Amino acid sequence: MDGSTEKRKKSKKSVKKATSVNKTNNIKVKQKIENAPSEQYFILSNGQPVKNVKELADVLEHVSEDIFNHHVTNEKNDFANWTKDVFKEIELAQELAGTNNKDHTRIVLYKHIIKKLGK
Q: Whole-structure pTM over 0.85, yes or no?
């Protein structure tokens, strides 16, 4: 076996190992991030369904301000209500209720996810 063949074999083993680790980490993340029952998915005003808080944080990066402002006003915060009513995440709901822009909302959601993954 020449040196390049041996390097390719080692490289393939490294890729397989990294893929295995990533799959394991993704499984752990999915197990800790609970999906809502399908009948309780959050439906954005544009019709897009959201099944969990991680997905909500990710989706908020791309939705328009109009869509966000439809769900978050001075009088209501649909995201806070959803997390409280569906996931029983009272602390998260209280934090979300204090947000009024997409970036802050996303930060609150990601901090919650990181905290949950640390448990």
A: no
Q: pLDDT digit string (tens) for 31-51?
A: 578 999 999 999 999 999 999
Give strand ranges (E) for the chain: 42-43, 49-50
Report the alpha-carbon distance of residue 79 to residue 44 in Å, rounded. Answer: 10
Which residue segment(s) compose the domain that 107 sits in?
Answer: 38-117
Q: Closest Cα partner for 67 from 106, 94, 102, 105?
A: 102
- Tell me, yes or no, whether 20 and 56 share the same domain: no
Q: Is 45 exposed, middle or buried (0-12, 13-18, 19+ CB in 10 A)?
A: middle
